[in-house]
Amino acid sequence: MSTTTSKPALPPVRRVVTGHTTDGKSTVIRDEVQPPQFWSPGSINAIYDIGRTETIPANIDSEITTGEFIDEIATSKGHVGSTGAVFRSFDFAPGAVIPFHRTVSMDFGVIVKGQIVLQLDDDKKVTLNQGDAVVQRGTIHNWRNETDEWTRIFFVVMGAHPININGEELKEEWRKPK
After folding, report:
1. Predicted local distance difference test score (pLDDT) of residue 97
2. Hey, is 43 helix, strand or coil?
3. Distance from C-alpha of 169 to C-alpha of 151, rounded to nearest angstrom
4. Among 89, 107, 19, which Cα is nearest to 50's?
5. Mean pLDDT over each residue of the chain, to the nearest integer
6. Which fold has domain 14-174?
7. Strands (DSSP E) along 138-175, which ranges?
8. How many helices (H) and strands (E) does the chain have?
9. 49 forms bridges with which residues in the sheet?
10. pLDDT tens sequence across 84-107
11. CA–CA separation, 11 vs 7, rounded Å?
């Protein structure tokens, strides 16, 4: 991912993070607009990293103890480790097509604006509309915004064990566009 000077068409994502003061009182420790990252140089498809944990269950005591938030997201570590989880938002421009890929993760997504087509490598296409949810389980897939409107999807991505089919482990994979 890279940064660019392009301005996304959808409003930025605001992140509010809660924690505790040193005397144990609840407090808001971050209330900010997330800066977008972009798929590649010159891209207008935006990614907003909202939160991350390297382990499940999360160790929130070590991250938030004195009103400070150790922001592991700020440097964007990419996808998710096998024991962690990431909360992320994706904005897809009209006509955007993301190449076929597989991640070793369990992804829970909700379409909050627009419409997106999920295409699997068996050529099955499923159109998801605003309010629909998807559970992506390590399959080869791509995303296609076949409309003239922007689409926003929020995902919680959790690390997973690789899928094993007939003794073959299916690893992360990105295919070149055809």
Report:
1. 93
2. coil
3. 33
4. 89
5. 84
6. Jelly Rolls (2.60.120)
7. 141-144, 151-159, 163-165, 168-170, 173-174
8. 1, 15
9. 88
10. 899 999 999 999 999 999 999 999
11. 10
